[in-house]
Amino acid sequence: MVRIGYVFASVPAAAGALLLWLGWYVTGGALLALAAFVLFFFRDPEREIPDAPGAIVSPADGWVLSVGEARLNGADCTRISIFLSLFDVHVNRAPIAGRIVSAEYRRGRFLVASRERASVENEQNEITMEGEGTRVVFRQIAGVLARRIEFWKKPGDVLARGERVGMIRFGSRVEVFFEPHYRPRVKPGEHVRGGSSILAQRD
Fold this sequence. Notes:
CATH topology of the largest domain: Glucose Permease (Domain IIA)
Number of helices: 3
Strand content: 35-45%
CATH class of the largest domain: Mainly Beta
Shape: elongated
Strand order of the largest sheet: 9-5-6-7-11-3-2-13
Helix content: 10-25%
Number of domains: 2
Order of helices and strands: HHEEEEEHEEEEEEEEE
Distance between the termini: 36 Å
CATH superfamily of the largest domain: Glucose Permease (Domain IIA)
Number of strands: 14
Structural class: alpha+beta
């Protein structure tokens, strides 16, 4: 459980308990249900991190929207886009072991995260990592309900593969960019799990 989740859940939980005590059963019950959902949203389960050589793991839980060729900073690469619904775990993880080269936050819009335009127009945080003989870029992208991107690390930090790095609150999108000689292991429509699902592997 992400600790801030207890803070968010405490208000509706306290209000719901008070209303139940006063006899407002429907409203009180609804507030308690809301508190339970908030705790569910901020869950942070342990994951088994694969040790396969040359593997890039998913930074987040969610549904694969697209897998395809792209260009980033003038270089050819492969991009995998993942959509996180309200019911997915929203804690983000490092896709490779290595050092954070940069983390660049950019303000933007709050379009529905499953739309392709959200990749370019929405508020986002772009993290570049180097390690395991490669460079990987991943983006935390806010959605229509996500109004806060959290990143718990900083440039220069050295991370283990699958290490927790942050979260996006309430529905979002994550994208991963990697070098063309890595072979994608997922396809659109698949559900992946942060830290444990292998997105791509070096040929």
